[in-house]
Amino acid sequence: MDVKRVPGDLLGAHVSTQGGVAQAPARGNAIGATAIQVFTKTPNQWREPMVRNAEIAAFRSSLAGSGIRAVVSHDSYLINLASPDEALRTKSIGAFTGELHRSRTFGIPWVVSHPGNYIDDRAAGLARNARGYAQCLAAVLGEVGVLIEGTAGAGTALGSTFEELRALRDALPAGVQARVGFCLDTAHLHAAGYDVATALEEVWERFDEDIGLTHLKCLHLNDSKGAPGSHLDRHQWIGEGTIGPEPFRRIMRDPRLASVIKIIETPKGEDPIRHDRRMLRRLRAYARAASPNGRTAQTVGRA
Fold it and tell me: Less crowded by CB within 10 Å, the N or C end of the chain?
């Protein structure tokens, strides 16, 4: 099966690290990715793994010999830097510091991080979250930073609005802010009430005005099973959900987003390699220029 890459893009998927992080580049190769996202530890456990020099060397060697041009990691699902529970917040700070340290050790420049759940008071939770980021970044210096991910806004989750994302970064010490950017998820934006499906350019304009497109370093490209504004975080295959294909065509053709890492987190079903391959093929087909008559090819809708 053809898994030909497009050398100039930064497109891929979240890939498994079962058997060790060093296995990830090969899994990216298998689906034709030029970018991958990984977990550096089991995301639903607190246990901190010991990373051995041999694993670090194996990952770096595998990555260097692959066609993967960009790697980001994603933090643990258990971390809640915004929690009012001091014990949980302390544990979360330790875990997030570990995420930053492992990523730096592997040479991964960015850790994608979901803002926490404030539980009690939104403003207090945001301040706690920002202090947590600042403490962790101060503890792990060097070439690693945080990409704060916009959320769907369910429950007491922070980060579903551009204003709140900006406030998290603005609350950090000036010396730390250069190490903090953003990751947006199309399904989360849609669920949070941003009109990705029919007014995508207005979404980008608003983000640029509130935060600045230069700070957007990663996009999670996912269609959605939920209605606009539903706060339902349920991913669907590209072009087959309530967002539809056109916004993804626009994203893939937008020169402003050419240097932004693009990662799919779409359903993997019973055959993850096949589904990831077909989603990447579909997105690359969307990226092709319009035909000479000015119309966009429609032949890839269910590839």
Answer: N
3-state helix, strand, coil in the chain (%, to 5): 40, 15, 45
Task: State whether residue 276 is helix, strand or coil.
Answer: helix
Tokens 């539980």 found at: 119
265 in a structural domain: yes
Report pLDDT for 301. 38
Instruction: Give me the helix-helix angle, 122-139 and 162-170, nearest 10°.
Output: 50
CATH number, domain containing residue 90: 3.20.20.150
Are 267 and 17 contacting, i.e. CB atoms less than 8 angstroms apart? Answer: no
Contact 88/80 with Cβ under 8 angstroms? yes
Contacts of 11 (CB under 8 A, 6+ apart): 33, 34, 35, 262, 263, 280, 283, 284
Which residues of the chain are modeled with pLDDT < 70? Answer: 1-4, 7, 289-303
Is 163 part of a structural domain of the chain?
yes
For residue 275, give the nearest of 249, 248, 236 by alpha carbon: 236
Helix axes 272-287, 24-31, angle to 10 degrees: 60
**3-state SS class at 12:** strand
